[in-house]
Amino acid sequence: MAPPNGPSAVTAGPLPTVEQILEPSPVVLMRRRVFGHAGITIGATVLIVIFAVALLAPVLSPHDPLDQDLTRRIIPPIWHEAGTWEHPLGTDQFGRDYLSRLMYGARISLLIGFVAMLISGVIGTTLGVAAGYFGGRVDMVVNFIITTRLSMPVVLVALAVVSLVGNSLWIVIWVLGLLIWDRFAVVMRSSTQQVRNLDYVAAAKALGCSTGRILLTEIMPNIANNLIVVATIEVAHAVLLEAALSFLGLGVQPPAPSWGLMVSEAKGLMFFDPWLIGIPGAALFALVLSINLLGDGLRDVTAPENRN
Known about the structure:
The protein contains 13 helices and no strands. The chain has helices spanning 18-22, 26-35, 38-55, 57-60, 98-134, 136-150, 154-165, 169-177, 182-195, 199-206, 211-247, 259-266, 275-302. Helix 5 (98-134) packs antiparallel against helix 11. The model has no long low-confidence stretch (mean pLDDT 84).
């Protein structure tokens, strides 16, 4: 009998082909999909620029965003004949540099959008996954909570709460975070119901895995692409809600350089100096569009049917 390691030993399997050896790894394939997706490229580029401007605002801003000079009020941007490079985007009705306020306003919009999304995401994802996985009475209770939340108009409730409790920055963030979790709950519940009875979940149960481990290692990775899309939608939603509250005078309070507040302060001059509304409005548009493009792109490249 030949020794196990001798020439006549049976090989473990067929040798890999040249195509299999040269086939790119999953990491390389994912990198190619990410960098080859136009939505991700455009959205990520714009979002990175806005993040960089927000972080480097103390270095990049030419003036203090709170400094007032009534002798230099309503200076137009540089593309107007009366514009000056000292104030490239002009000044507002109080003589404050518009470019500096726009840079610092990016900080407020990003902070509100992402923190409110995190708060609402934790609440909605927890409720949705619990309802979708356990079903029965848990599902019934969560559905009742979701229905109750959907019966309350977000803007009206936010206006009422902010007007009663106060309208500091963190109160606005918490109010928005506690009001926009319903989309997380609905989508996560539906996604969890679709995957809870699949073979890999049944195999994990048969192996004796705990419920927590199944939820974290089997359920969540396979619904992550839906979570990414909802998260990006809610970031944009929170940014727009803050802008609406600030426009109505119940969001971030002056003299803070909020983009929504800049639009609100300029509404009386929109027919005479439309750039006062157009500049912060364009910034809001660019931020929301970049977030949505990035979210849609990540959904496309992380969908289960696109992983192979």
